[in-house]
Design a protein that fits this description.
binds adenosine monophosphate; Rossmann fold; alpha/beta; 8 helices; two-stranded antiparallel sheet; globular; about 15% strand; about 220 residues; about 50% helix
Length: about 220
């Protein structure tokens, strides 16, 4: 199955993606995670991406398009993909049409997660992530068993540099200006399922499953 998951920062894309890949045998490809890994490993790409990311700005389209094209050639994408955080601009969406055609895996469905700003701000500022295994926590809604320590691997949890209310505002503006047109682009193709993601993870996943059931 070839799925895109879209939504503003804090909408729960990571959490929904974890649940989706448990049920469907496809890789979760998050461009944000790929970039953060490059930043951690101080690759050429990571050094370039870091300043954009810390400012909540988008990394240039050509850099991202090449990174995604390369990733989708990997053997684990033969059954499909769950792309998270890409395409984020119309330029990326148009480039992706060609990439998807080249690999013979056109987009089948787009999950668009919607949440109000106040809920996003609460989620974003309380979010803690494990820099080692990628597990996601929230200080109130999903605390780790021991404060500040990952339940899965024991690493010390961190707060992402861009998980502040100020950066959220920048990222929301970016989302409105750059990413909403991408949803319109897929809506015109009849591929979008709108998901009310302001509810808890179970209730949100129930809607996701219903949407995916239509393409499975
Ligand atoms: P995310 O984890 O999806 O919120 O992404 C974190 C940051 O990585 C974003 O604020 C951007 O700076 C960068 N990024 C991730 N995906 C993309 C993309 N498709 N296009 C441009 N920048 C991206």
């Amino acid at each position: 199955m070839n799925i895109l998951i879209m939504g503003p920062a804090g909408a729960g894309k990571g959490t929904m993606s974890d649940l989706i890949i448990k049920e469907f045998d496809i890789p979760h490809i998050s461009t944000g995670d790929m970039l953060r890994e490059n930043v951690r490993n101080q690759t050429e790409l990571g050094v370039l991406a870091k300043s954009y990311m810390n400012a909540g700005k988008l990394v240039p389209d050509d850099v991202i398009n090449a990174m995604v094209e390369d990733r989708l050639q990997q053997p684990d994408c033969q059954k499909g993909y769950l792309l998270d955080g890409f395409p984020r601009t119309l330029v990326q969406a148009e480039a992706f049409e060609k990439i998807a055609e080249k690999i013979g895996r056109p987009v089948e469905t787009v999950l668009a997660l919607n949440v109000d700003f106040d809920i996003l701000a609460e989620r974003i500022t309380g979010r803690r992530i494990c820099p080692k295994c990628g597990a996601i926590y929230h200080i109130k809604n999903k605390p780790s068993r021991t404060e500040g320590i990952c339940d899965e691997c024991g690493a010390e949890l961190i707060q992402r540099k861009d998980d502040t209310v100020e950066q959220l505002k920048v990222r929301m503006d970016e989302y409105e200006n750059s990413t909403k047109p991408v949803i319109d682009f897929y809506e015109a193709k009849g591929l979008v399922s709108k998901i009310d993601a302001s509810q808890n993870a179970n209730a949100t996943f129930a809607q996701v499953k219903e949407a995916l059931g239509k393409v499975a």
